[in-house]
Amino acid sequence: MEIRWSGSTPGTYDTAVEKKAVALLSGGLDSALACELTLRLGFQVVGLNLATGFCVGQGRCDTVLALAARLGIPLRLRDVGAEFLEVVRSPKFGYGSGMNPCLDCRILMARTAGKVMEEEGASFVVTGEVLGQRPMSQHRKALDLVAAESGLGERLVRPLSGRLLGPTYPERMGFVRREDWLDIQGRSRRRQLALAREWGLTEFVQPSGGCCLLLTKTYAVRLRDAFRHRGTEALTAEDFALLRYGRHFRLSPRVKVIVGRDEGENAVLAGFSRGRWALAFPAVPGPVALVEGDPSPEELELAAALAARYSDARAEDQVLVRATWDGEARELSVVPLAPDDPRIGRWNLGE
Ligand code: SF4
After folding, report:
1. Binding site membership of 220 for ligand 1 (Cβ less than 6 Å)
2. Which of the listed residues 130, 137, 143, 219 should we mutate to test ligand 1's pocket, taking the one with most ligand atoms within 8 A of CB?
3. Would you list the domain boundaries of the chain?
4. DSSP readout, 62-130?
5. % of the chain with per-residue pLDDT over 90
6. What is the pLDDT of residues 65-104, one digit of tens each?
7. pTM of the model
8. In the CATH scheme, what is the code of domain 15-213?
9. How far is the CA of 50 from the centre of ligand 1 (A)?
């Protein structure tokens, strides 16, 4: 990595370059504090928010914008969705409790921040990682691994736990003393919340708010199912997105049904109908449903009967279902499956 600097000992550096950092901002408390502390230590900071496409925190983006405005720092926004999908498909360091490839994700984020560091003429990257806060990605070995694999080494700085970790570039250059970093560790957020109060920081998403779709049980079950039945490489970005919406049912190795749960989801599912059978209820209020795969006529009828279970049709009555696929339309007359049909539970993915 080429860094613009003019010497290796304090006093011979280009101050403007050396005292500038790029801070990764997620919208969470820890990254906000790490950024604030870096500013308090006299560094110029550029904020960086990376969009993976798997974020679930309400208003995270707005929070990052508000934080940058409050701190008076420029903010860079970058979409890493395509690279992130590659990481999700085949993480070098595996998954956590869900389908969360946290180590590979942090390496990708640090590596991307390193590129922005070069573009910005900064000399190090700041993150809000806290030693011991997350079992998979924030123990000591994991933090060191991310620093090494991202290529940043001692230029990857975690100010909230800095006193407990190895020496960093700003320390070696004499910009900060070791004791300027904090020594926070563990899962409790008590010290961070106290610091936020002391520093008047309110622009962060509450720590309990969750952050990543890949950590959720439902999404993880659906993604594993999709990988198993379609292979990791066949899934498109649209397929990953569709796993978020509706109820998902695996009818057979080659057929899956997705049923909207409300008007909002019905509208979203209608937008995913290309390349899938779309089921609608012309005679009674009912959901939009999609059928993936290559269903036989019997499987399409079964999918319609399953979708009809979530319509306003009475359980014992025949109901009309219109099935369309790429210009082809079929009218099916089906009896809705009974709500207590045991197959529904067996087919259901993740609820
Ligand atoms: S929880 Fe999601 S966003 Fe956070 S590090 Fe893990 S994979 Fe990345």
Report:
1. no
2. 137
3. 15-213, 216-347
4. HHHHHHHHHHT--EEEEE-HHHHHHHHHS-TT---SSS--HHHHHHHHHHHHHHHHHHHT-SEEE----
5. 85
6. 999 999 999 999 999 999 999 999 999 999 998 999 999 9
7. 0.89
8. 3.40.50.620
9. 11
